[in-house]
## 1
Amino acid sequence: MRGLDLELRAGETTALLGVNGAGKSTTLALLCGALRPTRGQVRVLGMDLYRQPRQAKRHLGLLPERPPLYPELTVDENLDFAARLRGLDRRQAQQARRRVKQELDLTGFSRRLAGRLSRGMAQRVGIAQALIHQPEVVILDEPTASLDPVQAKSLRGLVAALGEKRAVLLATHLLADVEQLCHQVIVLRDGQVAARERLFDQPGARVHLLRPPPAEKLQAVPGVAEAHPQPNGWFQLILTAPPESALRELAQADWGLTDFIRGRHDLERLTNLMVDA
Amino acid sequence: MIRLLLRHQLARRYATVTPWLATAASQLLLAWLLFAQLEIYLKIQPRLTSLASTLGIHDLVIAPTLASTALALLLLAPLLGMDAIAGERRDGRMALFSSSPVSPGALVLGKWLGQLAVLLPLLLLALAMGLAVGLGSHLDAGQLAASALGLLLTLALACAVTLWLSSLVEQPLTAAALSWGVLLLAWFIDSSGGDSLTTLSLRAHLQPFFQGLVTLASLGWFFLLTVATLLLTFLQLRRLAGSDTARRHRLMLLLVALATALALAGLTRLNSRWDWTDAKRNTLSQSSQAALAALDGPVAVSVYLENYPVQRAAVRELLEKYRRADHRFSYRFIDPKTHPEEIRKNGIVRTPTLLLHAGSHYQRVETVDESHLTAALARLGRKGTGWIGALTGHGEARLFGQANFDLGDFGRLLEQQGYRVVAIDATATGQIPENLDLLIMAAPATRLAAGEIQILKRYLDDGGNLLWLADGMLLPEMASALGISFLPGVVVDAAAAGLGLDRPTVAVARPADDHPVTRALAGPVLLPRARAIKAQRANGWQPQPLLRTGPRSWNETGALKGAIQRDPQVGEEQGPLTLAVALTRGAQRVAVVGGSDFLGNSFLGNGANRPFGLALVRWLSGNDKLIQVKPYRPPDQKLRWPHKTLAAVAALFLAGVPLVLAATGLFIAWRRRRV
């Protein structure tokens, strides 16, 4: 990894996007202290992760790509161990276990062996392990990969809820995850940051103009809140009104409108950035 | 955190059926071994008692079972601990630890102690069996405690090695295979017999614990290797976490390896040891330690003994005490069946025989106990200080002469034994030197002058020791002073023909079994042209016969040609006739033998002549003094249990415990999977 500069904020979910081998897992390993960088630092709530690892890691929750469960132990035993490992005492661990099971709808599985859980359920227990000590920062590595659509949808709901209060970093190669869950996206390619974009909650569109005006002129169009120029005559627009009114105004202007693609951000461009197309 | 990891490891393992079944199967096997050995022991026990063996139930039953337990632990440690780190890596669970406030040190210690705790029940069960059988005979709590310590150290090392190798790979099976390879190599490395490999041998360092002996060197060996492997695991975890660069990691590995090698080399200099046995049976007596300390070089012992495990174990136990007390002492077993040339060359006629070599000197021990061995060592330590004078000037048989009748070979033998032999010409010196340990008067051919007789008498009066090989010119004044007389003629013995000798003038003399000189002799002494001796108390001398002929002998006074027969009219007496006599007066010792040819160059190798001559000189020069060491008799040689009790104990460990373990494991596994 080179030149990675990243800030996670509470209440914000950040996607780490990249194809396999782009450096997502390495980045996560660096951020949770499993690997130490040759240069640079990681701070968690102001604490240096490598100089004060014990204090800093108490505020970190990690769900690796495969949930770190012991198949021969029950769900409760797995959660208890994770809680105690994060520094909770026996009583705190029991309370935390009850709370997190309720939050993640795991109460019926207390004595089920982890090795007998479905993949989706195992992911839930993995998230429960990551959240059991109520960390401020949650790191999720491909949480929906290899889940069926129903399980993936359910899990996305969980992650979305997490992102409301905590700082969440989500490593994924699935654009659907990014689109539905994230406020910011960092695209990794060959161990470097290829792009860094903020995603918006308002409706948006992507337009192509043969004779593009300055961005300020586009922002003056009724129904358009922001216009972000992109190469080759493309613009990402943030709209304040339904797209139809903006489309009407743009078509009437003499800017040579050729494309108008509805969507709040440019997923296709992100895909291209991932593979350097 | 370490305690949490320990408990977690324990809970994980015993949540599955594998460790329960593995422990049950191992327990069954070990119990079977123990009771099979106990059965064999009970069969040979009467023989052991009659042989005054120093081995008891602990040595022959409990210790071998505990050694098998150690081997079982070496096999089970990798089986149950192979995934300690490799499994976490393979299943992606290392992230759980790396994202938690757990230091690599705590992780290593927690996992190691957890593995140790998983296998502890098997160790405790083996000790419980030893304890039970010990209670049935005589429990040596110290010896059992030392054995427990040895097993615990072995387990600790096995777990540490497994943990380290488990941290190097991602596949638990690969870790297990590597661990088995390393641990079994360490166990069997000294099987080839190379002494240099003993330093690396786990078995060699464990064995003393089973004998109740705790040595600082062995403690250090286990501690050092366990700490070193734990340190390597720690470094590997840091490497995996990227905390150390590749260069720094290599440097640290090199440092650990160097420090371990240096410390291992230093361990050989540690001599502190603690004998935990009740009877302090592993500790040499003060006299033996002093005899070892007096040696000025290494002593190599050749033990001529057939490959009988029980007999060799008893000899080994004795020799090990010396080896442990002084690293200059070494020994090797030689099977007479496979080394006939060596047997012939060294004149070994019975087993066990020990030849102690120190430089060009050697000593022979045929009664293997601490008293005789230490006495032989003391003799080796005294080399150069035992002075023997050989009277000359009257045509005596010379102690360095080459003629058939000379005693050259015997003289060289004495020098090999550490004596210094000097010629004494009483006429020239006017006296016999006071510092002589023994004066040998070997068959003077001419009459001694009156002055010389006086010198000899004064020597005796001053307490000097004398070996008189009475041949050639007899000295009536000397004989009278000692209270002996010689029968006329030469002894002829019909028993010689029975030994294939064609000369009746060779007397076949049986050694007396009530004198230290002749007690250990294995056969007859053959004396050619011997004179019979009569002895009586005189001048304070106490005579005691050493050699006597059989009833088919007499002293022939006639010509030794053609058919001969005894003629009582001319004073020919029928055997048994005394041919050698020992005389004592307080601490002073004299021996008179009716002839010198039996020690001559042409006859020394016949019968028990050589050992008799050596024993005679040893006794006369005061080198026969045995070190008084109280013989050890193991208190646990008899099993006190009636048959019913033994059967109940056997059933408990052979069936009860394994069944309960297996049933518990199966029940737990079934119950946990049911939900």
## 2
Amino acid sequence: MSERASQPPAPGVPVFITDFLRTKCPDSGPIGEDEDLVLTGVLNSMHFVELLYLIESELDTEISMDDVSSADFRTIGRIRDRFFSQAA
Amino acid sequence: MTTATALSLDGMYLIPPEHHVPDTDRATAAELLGCDDRAIDALVHDGLTVSGDRFDGRDLFNLGLHSGTGRTVPEQAFAFSLRWMRASADALLSPRTLGFTLTADCACADVTLAVPRPDRYGGAVTPAPSRDVVRASTVTATIRTEGRAAPLRSPVLRGLVEEFAGLGVRWVKLPDALRDDETLVTSHRVATCESASRWLALRCRAAGYAATTRIGWVVGMLDLVHAWVEVTDDDGETKIVDPVFALFAAGVAGANPLLTDPAVALRTNRLVPTALEVGGRVAHHGCDLPVTVRINPVKEMS
């Protein structure tokens, strides 16, 4: 099993996020909330854009690029805290 | 023909063989281009460089960005990143206070980072920088930027801006060895931010105007390092001319016309300059891990 399989699942992360990441990287096990999605290859620049649009669709609002940085998308914990903190 | 009709190599500049890096597999290529396998076959048949059924990611990016299909990843990414170009003049010019953090995300012992210098453009940096580059793995500052839309008075300079806009240049990703090569602008009608700026600065100087290139960041465009031109106009004022932003704005529906007007030298409040020219690097370190920049608005006390 991969190292990430030993990581605990992230509480409060919308299911569509984990489903999306699993679709993009089907060989990955459960993704820990602090696991770096870029360094581990789960998320690449292509998926990044798709993920942005998905989050916008879920929130039903445009994400201003002024208010985010690439660091906000490095882990699912950061994605949760940045965009879905009320649900966390 | 196949479904490749919307994806064409016409006018494409392919990465030269000596710089070709087959780093992208076929499935990823199809995903990036939003096409099927037959379309990839057609592109290969038409000359897309392939090596062991792998492609150069830069070729794919450039092909996707200029495909006109609207469904490729590069097109979608640019549409997202360039939304700000539809902003009002006031939004493009008003002073902004921003938190700035540049981080080398690695364990390299010897890291050198560039310092933001919006004070060059009437803004401010806190704490005040004592150097233009520092040996550190993180640079943190509060910066203040402000825009300016000044008339470009010199008809010669306006002519050069119009000449560039009229070349039909495509902005592309290029290998490091070619990124600053301004000869590609006229020979192949392709440019990076760096080569376009060098092309324009060289022509300004040839026409007798003091001009230099500048590199830095753009608020809202994540980790992109951008380049533009500083040129001293007939009225003695040093003004900003940004050939690539004009190029991008021309493709954004509803973009503010200030961005494409050759008679306006537009310095938006989104530009965060360094003290470096094209050829300089915002980060020096010993590995390939990314350097990330965070530039976010700071809520000001009233």
